[in-house]
Design a protein that fits this description.
TIM Barrel, 6-stranded parallel β-sheet, Rossmann fold, Cobalamin-bd, Methylmalonyl-CoA mutase cobalamin-binding subunit, 23 helices, about 10% strand, Cobalamin-bd_sf, about 600 residues, 2 domains, alpha/beta
Length: about 600
Amino acid sequence: MALPSKPTAGVRLARADVLPPGPLGGGEAFARGRAGAATVRLGRSAFLEARGAASELEVKRRMIAERRFSFHAQIGYRAIEDSRRAWAGIHDRLAEKGAAPDRYGICLDWSMGYPAAERRGRPRGTGMILESPADFIALTAMAPVAPHFGDFVLGMPAAVENAAAALLAGSTTIGNLSQYFTFRLPGWGNDVGTTLATVEALGLIKAQPVPILIHSNLDDGYAAWFEDMGSALGFAMVERWIVEDLIGLPLGHCFGHTFSEPAKRLAFQIALARANPTPGTMLYGNTTLYGPEPVANYGALASYMLVDAFALWSTPSGQALTPIPVTEARRIPTVEEVVDAHLAARRLVERIGDLAPILSTAAAEPIAETLFARGVRFRDRLMEGLDAAGFDLADPAEVLLALRRIGPAELERRFGERDGAEAVASPFVDEIEQLARQVLAAVPQAEKAALAHRRPRVVVATTDVHFYGKRLLSIVLGRLGIELVDGGVSIDPDVLARRAAESGAEAVAVSTYNGVALSFVQRLKGELARLRIEPRVFIGGRLNEILDDAGTSLPVDVTDELRQSGAVPCRRVEDLVTALAGIAPGAQT
């Protein structure tokens, strides 16, 4: 299904320009979900039995009252047996050191977002594939750790069946709501169906005998797209209104991937705790700080862990600390690497009481105040704007789909602050700007002159929702005088090929993160051949994939295979710039 044209800033927002005529039926979908609870009931949980609690939310509230920290790790190898061994192994090895994790985030593969009956032949990433509810149960029974089903459950076409399986496996935290707004499964265009499936899943969750915490990772949603951190906080408030006021479920927020500037990271946590007093899920590790050298990444790990531990020491809000293994930038970490990261973080956190007297929130508090005030104004303007445009604010499906179709850029243009004097730039804006300047400073003058003279036309796109690399590429290439064509985010290969053909581009530059580098390039090259055009294809980011003939369920480096397919792998932006400097206008070779 093709999306309608988005509204344009300066033109009155109207429901008819965004949604199909007639009611969406969110109320009926929610009722179907509640009725489904007659056969889908929350299963037993080794974690809850060990903690003597009815839900993870109850455990979180206890830990807040006792001012105790909790810790989160990620599990998600392609083969379920590998994940089951990791589930037990990480817990047991850390428990021997008195450092057992409290919760595991379960990294389902993105192909799990498709309905089970339609998964065959769909592209796969590097995450876990669970074939049945029995697989969900077998996984979570391996150790007394809280199962957190986040990515590719809510917000997906398979939301109902995946939420049902998570509940049967004893999970009392389910997400990832933010993915609904930004993630697009390849080849799937039915956003109305996805919306109704999400609302139905929320109805199923609402009808359970204990409160289930709905998880939203703001970095996977619009918070990673807004230029102003105030808009990001305001949208978190909107999410809370949808989940807690319209649906009646508790919403726990998470953030952290792209928040690299310490004062802003601390300020956002202070403001978020005020904006949403419901216990959060976790504070995620600042993965954009990680580079190719694992040992050096321990410095990055310590830097964000110190900020997060101090934030939770100062304002307990229930989030679990997440020490990301130092190999995360290159590949899926091993059990040993997860254990090492947790032990390093535990040692730092043990000392937070001694460190706290020399730390301060003084620099962060004024930022937090500004963020909260701007967030409230953004939320209020957005809600008033949707109401004035004729959207049914009592129907969660209508509100969700409206926000998804309008999109973050348009929402911020319409409802963000008009006066930028007090704007707090989102951390990714500052960080990418700094990286862009570093790249541009390293480009030889001869290459700059060649690009300014030749002005090759380049389509820039991403294979998934992680747009960080695309933004960096666009800034660098644009300042070098290259003519840019927006290839899109989470773009399908056939759509990208058509954009290359329509624009007459000499090159296509693809940023990828989710373990589909080779299959994406192969499909893209096939589509380009079908269209009888031959722009050069460049690809950078996480260049790995799980190969059927590799003898392992872990992703492997596919750099050589990418070269054999005719693409140009680029480990650095500078590599792309050097290659583009040799492309003459109109050359498609």
